[in-house]
Design a protein that fits this description.
The structure is a homoheptamer.
Chain A (H helix, E strand, L loop, with lengths): L5 H8 L4 E6 L3 E10 L5 E13 L10 E13 L4 E6 L1
Antiparallel strand pairs in A: 1-2, 1-5, 2-3, 3-4
Chain lengths: 88, 88, 88, 88, 88, 88, 88
């Protein structure tokens, strides 16, 4: 179970499936995994980029989180930005 | 006691158990460990993602911490985001 | 699919094409890829640099995001700043 | 004195002793060291997690620091979060 | 095109030319490249250091960006601070 | 002069002397160096930990810096937090 | 020109000369270079530490930058904090 490939294994099984990749800096990319490499660089097709625009320092107690979505086609994610990858 | 595997050892013993993985950026993932690798990449099943939404800069002296939880199924955590892993 | 070259492959196919490179620190560079290397250092020609100027801590509920663009000719991007590369 | 093992030496001598491990991001873990490895990954038993909740940007000149403590049993700390380890 | 030297190639061609090196932390250095090495450490002669002083959290909707410039003669830039290098 | 050991040399000469180790995150540790290793991990005895509590975002033009000191006995500092080490 | 030693070369030529070393976190050290090593660890003698205290989030449009200087004798700077080194 502790073999080196748990990340690769999950990513390999997810090829062609929809995933949500959460990135540092309150960004996410949603789409289909086309490929990946050892550094966890990932190519997502039919990608949607999501930027959370949290009302951080305002005087709002409700603090609604707003998201800004944009279609970006094919996108390469540099692996060191990845926090989590969830299979949808 | 200082052998290289203390992290692997605790993670190996925790396979199938519930853990709480605290991540940088005020995120956590709670669920069952399915696997892990040397970089501390971890696959969690039946995962719940928790985002702390701390009222940082507001004029509230009470400063209630709010958490936002969401079910995410299977999730791969990139190891370099891990702060602590607690066995529940 | 998990061969080492997914990043290189996408970049190689994108030579001469327009891309949008998102960088850490709310910067982006848009232009044509002229070349790249293993560290994901990228040379962009006919480049436009975009700096997002988000009204972060103000009392504005609308929170319009403003962008500041400037033409920069040829620009070398150091790879470790890259978040995503989208083919336009 | 400059042999490679000063960190290992102090940690080895501290096995079974109470320590306070200060982490990046204003967190600490207090408890008994059960084990550690070369990356300074540490397993703490009977652990208490402490989160400092500093009133950073408020209009309080007193600026009382509040701490939030929680019992977490066994916890694995990823080494690259460690700032200091004090023997109690 | 994906040979290892794209960064070196652009820097080598830029020896003696004016460049603008953007650094992390809202700093830049403008001047002539005298030399560089594999870590992208760069020596700039006739250098001007530029610090952006952005009015971040104020109640100004105009948000004028102010720059503070200072002549610094010869300056060595440590490579890991570099974001982009533009040939002027 | 550019031999690899300038850091080790200064630290070796400082064994048993009082130093002030400035750390990232506005922390310092003052005390006697007992030992160190290649990663600049340092063990300080008779240590005092100092946390700067700067009034960052308040409406105070005076901006008095306050320090919070605590005696911590023996403390291990993880090297990658070190900014500067001054011999007292 | 692209030989590996541009950083070492400038530092070697600067031994005994006054330099201003700018560090991450709005700190600088001014003084004479006594020595350095491959990681860009630097020992400065007759050192003055400078901390910029920028009035970041206040309602001041003037935004005067204040500096706090202190004499620190001999100081070792850990290389990964260095942004720039200017020969004075």
């Amino acid at each position: 179970m502790s073999e080196e490939g748990i990340a690769s294994q999950l990513l390999q099984e997810s090829i062609g499936k929809n995933v949500l990749v959460k990135l540092k800096g309150r960004r996410s990319v949603r789409g289909k995994i086309k490929g990946f490499d050892k550094q966890m660089n990932i190519v997502i097709t039919e990608a949607t980029e999501i930027i959370e625009q949290q009302g951080n320092n305002n005087n709002n107690s409700e603090k609604k989180e707003q998201e800004q979505e944009s279609q970006v086609g094919d996108v390469l994610i540099r692996g060191d930005n990845v926090i989590t990858i969830a299979v949808l």
